[in-house]
TrEMBL record, chain A:
Family matches, as InterPro entries: AAA+_ATPase, ABC_SmlMolc_Importer, ABC_transporter-like_ATP-bd, ABC_transporter-like_CS, Mo/tungstate-bd_C_term_dom, P-loop_NTPase, Transp-assoc_OB_typ2
PANTHER family (alphabetical): SPERMIDINE/PUTRESCINE IMPORT ATP-BINDING PROTEIN POTA, SPERMIDINE_PUTRESCINE IMPORT ATP-BINDING PROTEIN POTA
Keywords in alphabetical order: ATP-binding, Nucleotide-binding, Translocase, Transport
Domain ABC transporter: from-to ranges: 2-233
Organism superkingdom: Bacteria
Gene3D superfamilies, per database record: P-loop containing nucleotide triphosphate hydrolases
SMART domains in UniProt: AAA
PROSITE patterns, A to Z: ABC_TRANSPORTER_1 (PS00211), ABC_TRANSPORTER_2 (PS50893)
Name of the protein this chain belongs to: ABC transporter, ATP-binding protein
Pfam families linked: ABC_tran, TOBE_2
Any one GO cellular component localisation term in the record: ATP-binding cassette (ABC) transporter complex
Record-level Gene Ontology MF annotations: ABC-type transporter activity; ATP binding; ATP hydrolysis activity
């Protein structure tokens, strides 16, 4: 569906994207994830046509669109701020592109009604000025406007970043359900790991203009290819070769690796002293559904999340067995240069 | 290399015309003025500077201007702060009335105000006439000279405090005051130790602005100061009127230019130091405190109403006398039979009476429309194109800010009093167009700054959104950008119109005798030779100007459009229920 082949983007002498290659399948929810300034929005804007690439080819359905103008690319875009035209009503915003195309009034009316139904906007809401709408309603208008001209692809640039946590969670679900229901190919930009994991079919993790890993959320989280991805995508306990030795874990099976990470939820604790690794709980923070522990094992500190069922039994000062599955240990070597 | 590839042919033509305009009417006149001061036929010369130093009258004018510039910030700051405290900090009865009274200088200023004061407190003024019946031996010309000018200007300039200081004061976090009170501070100490230090940058800016106003004052020293208290600006005007002393005027105006540069430097340095920002997460608004001591409370009310009275009296006198007949205006004795609409009838029917007003309206309208339209294009170009050319353009636009209007007007008079190639060998001095050009030039920097800020406020993604939906640049400008910047453009249109409608300082140098603007006419009508008819017309002109100023303030600053809308909506709801 979408192919980026050896794409390069330069700002004067600064190379923002040196060489980028990836593809997005039809109907896929594809997320560009990374910290600020890593090149994800640049990539998205290059796809939408707002940025001129200095090398490589972008194609949609095997058609080279690298030099095609913005509005001819058949890409709809939802902006970070939604970019709704403040002097217009929701109806006028959605109809804007159709009016530019000089579609008939009847067609515009029909298409806007169809889109309003898709994004669940009422007639009353359509007549409202967008400045008087809630964040959720504004987002729906932005999606409807982006879809009005029936684009092949819908791109979204951090559309939830300006919202409060509660609304963000509920809109995430709306976006996911909407994409699944209509099978729209979506390219989504975010710096929020949780959002990316929850929404995406596949995630591309950016690090300083380069792709560190492309994969499903499970692959990205549980089998992070690089140390940067491992650290960026979620919390992890870092262990050096010496730490591994101190807690009695053999590093021979990890080839040349000298850096090890274990996610906190992959460390199991038990009061029954039947494990090989014994530690002491040095702190506990209770969060309702789970508890967060710090454990000391022979001078090495671990973090661990435990569900509330287990948490009830454990207290600060308790000696506990620490269970770690070797398959859950993510290992990296210094040879694989990480930019982080 | 400068990239100009985004320029279309229309913009290119506009740029060329604009550059020609800037060179002809901003750069050349100022250079000519400097040349006329420092160069003679024999080359560089400081003879003209010496002649100023040797002129007793000119040196006295410089001294007087400095005296006014130094004293004005002190008196205005005292009055201004007290007015703001009466409105926003202390619980004074009749706050609504005080608010209106303290805002009078915003709509009743400049030549109008000087005229009002002259008719109220002048040697044949209304109040003076009453005072003379009580104290027959008093000096009728008591309201004259430095004291009178300082008094008038101190109250007139409180508008600086009512706009800037009051806004800053209202933004103070009340919790800091409550915290200080909780720690045992008295209200007065809180003001000194907590509130005022926060407002230090505003104090400094107001002080500098007032120093500048005092130094360059024209209308008040000219009409109230008289020969006893001549300052630089009226002297420049006097010297300009005689070709033999025009060079003295040029030297004095250069001096003003130099002072302006120094003051701008100080303001910028002050701005760079930054402001004290509230670090409160949840700000609370100021709650007014009542003065517990009865004598102090009485004294505060007395002063608050005295200030209101001082502001209101000249305005009321002008308003009331505008509705009286010639006999009453002449005698200053008013009774029930005095009232008449004759002055208004005259202004609305007599060609000579309404022509100055129409002239001013036409000039102010034309200048404000031209400047707003041109600056809309130029500001947009500068915001969209960041290169050396746009930087140079921006610097050019700010030149009129650096030099005082008076210096620039004089430069125009000197430069274009003979044919100049750059304006196709035309003589512009005394023509109808030169005043319009001057208005446009002096309005440019402010209009540009506001419009530029407005363009910066337009989210780039709005235009991107329009572009991705297929809109061409002009279409997205008209449909998306224009509605966003339109309120600023309209506000600038109104403010510019207001500022030039009763202009005197620039107009007096540049007007054409067949098209006298109202500011100049008010000044000449205030002379005793103009007779009662002139005085009567001045009242009506002032009332009209005040009405227009008030309307502009209502719509631009007091959100008048929404006030009216809300009024209609509430009536509609009432009717429906």
């Amino acid at each position: 569906m979408i192919t980026f082949k050896n794409i390069q983007v330069k700002y004067d002498n600064f190379v923002a994207i040196p060489d980028l290659t990836f593809d997005v399948k039809e109907g896929e929810f594809f997320t560009l994830l990374g910290p600020s300034g890593c090149g994800k929005t640049t990539t998205l804007r290059a796809l939408a046509g707002f940025l001129k690439t200095s090398g490589g080819v972008i194609s949609i359905d095997n058609k080279d669109i690298t030099d095609v103008s913005v509005h001819e690319r058949q890409v709809g875009m939802v902006f970070q701020s939604y970019a709704l035209f403040p002097s217009m009503t929701a109806f006028e915003n959605i109809a804007f592109g159709l009016k530019v195309e000089k579609k008939s009034k009847d067609y515009i009316k029909e298409r806007v009604a169809e889109l309003a139904q898709m994004v669940e906007l009422t007639d009353e809401q359509l007549a409202k000025n967008v400045s008087n709408m809630s964040g959720g309603q504004q987002q729906r208008v932005a999606i409807a406007r982006a879809l009005a001209k029936k684009p092949k692809i819908l791109v979204m640039d951090e559309p939830l970043s300006n919202l409060d946590a509660k609304l963000r969670k509920s809109l995430r679900k709306d976006i996911r359900n909407f994409q699944r229901k209509y099978g729209i190919t979506m390219v989504y930009v975010t710096h929020d790991q949780e959002e990316a994991l929850m929404l995406s079919d596949r995630i591309a993790v950016f690090n300083r203009g380069k792709l560190d890993q492309i994969g499903t959320p499970d692959e990205i989280y549980n089998h992070s290819k690089t140390e940067f991805v491992c650290k960026f995508i979620g919390d992890a306990n870092y262990l050096s070769v010496r730490d591994m030795g101190s807690i009695g874990l053999n590093t021979n099976r990890f080839d040349n690796s000298n850096k090890f990470y274990i996610r906190p939820e992959k460390i199991y604790l038990s009061k029954e002293k039947r494990g090989l690794i014994i530690g002491k709980i040095i702190s506990k923070e209770f969060y309702g559904m789970y508890a967060y522990y710090k454990i000391d094992v022979n001078g090495v500190e671990f973090q661990s999340f435990q569900s509330e069922n287990n948490a009830d039994d454990l207290a600060v000062g308790d000696d506990v067995s620490v269970f770690i599955n070797f398959d859950d240990i993510l290992s990296y070597s210094d040879e694989v240069k990480s930019d982080d | 290399m400068i990239r100009l590839k985004r320029l279309n042919i229309g913009t290119l033509i506009l740029m060329v015309v604009f550059l020609w305009f800037m060179v002809s009417f901003v750069i050349v006149p100022n250079l000519e003025l400097i040349k006329s001061v420092f160069f003679s036929n024999d080359g560089i010369s400081i003879e003209k500077l010496k002649s100023i130093i040797n002129s007793k009258r000119a040196m006295q004018g410089v001294k007087n201007s400095f005296l006014l510039a130094i004293t004005l910030p002190i008196t205005t700051t005292i009055i201004g702060i007290m007015e703001v405290l009466f409105l926003e900090y202390y619980d004074i009865q009749g706050r609504g009335f005080l608010k209106v009274a303290y805002m009078i200088p915003l709509v009743f200023g400049g030549i109008m105000l000087a005229n009002g004061y002259l008719f109220t407190y002048g040697s044949r003024g209304f109040v003076t006439t009453i005072l003379l019946t009580v104290f027959p031996h008093m000096n009728p010309a008591w309201f004259r000279g430095f004291g009178a000018v300082l008094f008038l200007m101190s109250f007139a300039c409180t508008s600086t405090y009512i706009i800037f200081f009051r806004n800053a004061f209202k933004n103070i976090d009340y919790q800091t005051i409550e915290a200080a009170r909780g720690l045992g501070s008295s209200d007065f100490k809180i003001l000194l130790k907590v509130v005022f230090p926060t407002l230090k940058p505003i104090f400094l800016t107001c002080t500098i602005l007032l120093f500048q106003t005092g130094l360059m004052a024209m209308a008040a020293p000219l009409m109230i100061g008289g020969r006893d208290f001549e300052t630089i600006s009226p002297l420049i005007l006097t010297f300009t009127q005689r070709p033999s002393s025009r060079i003295l005027a040029a030297v004095l105006s250069l001096f003003l230019g130099l002072m302006q540069l120094v003051l701008l430097y100080i303001i910028q340095r002050n701005e760079r130091k930054g402001n004290f920002l509230s670090i409160s997460k949840v700000k609370t608004t100021i709650k007014r405190v009542s003065i517990s001591s009865k004598p102090l409370n009485f004294l505060s009310h007395l002063i608050a109403y005295a200030f209101a009275f001082i502001n209101t009296v000249p305005l009321l006198v002008v308003l009331i006398f505008s509705f009286t007949d010639y006999k009453t205006i002449s005698s200053r004795h008013i009774n029930l039979k005095s009232f008449s609409l004759e002055n208004y009838r005259l202004i609305l029917t007599s060609d000579t009476a309404y022509r100055p007003f129409v002239t001013s309206v036409m000039y102010a309208t034309a200048a404000s429309i031209i400047v707003v339209l041109v600056m809309m294009v130029i500001a947009r170009f500068i915001v969209k194109n960041k290169n050396k050319f746009s930087t140079i353009l921006e610097m050019l636009i700010h030149i009129p800010w650096v030099f005082p209007g008076l210096m620039f007007a004089l430069g125009l008079v000197i430069t274009y009093s003979h044919p100049q190639k750059i304006v196709f060998n035309n003589v512009l001095t005394g023509s109808l167009v030169i005043m319009l050009i001057a208005y446009v030039v002096v309005l440019m920097p402010n209009t540009f700054r506001f419009l530029k800020a407005s363009y910066f406020g337009v989210d780039q993604s709005l235009e991107d959104a329009a572009r991705i939906l297929g809109a061409k640049p002009l279409y997205s400008y008209i449909k998306i950008v224009l509605p966003i910047i339109l309120p600023t453009a309209l506000a600038m249109l109104a403010i510019n119109f207001n500022s030039k409608l009763s202009d005197y300082d620039l107009s007096v140098f540049l007007y054409n005798p067949i098209a006298k603007p109202v500011g100049v006419v008010i000044r000449s009508n205030s002379n005793s030779e103009a007779g009662i008819e002139g005085l009567a017309l001045n009242f009506v002109y002032s009332v009209f100007l005040m009405a227009i100023n008030s309307l502009v303030f209502f719509f631009v600053y007091a959100d008048g459009k929404n006030t009216i809308k809300n009024l209609f909506n509430s009536r509609k709801i009432k009717n429906e229920s």
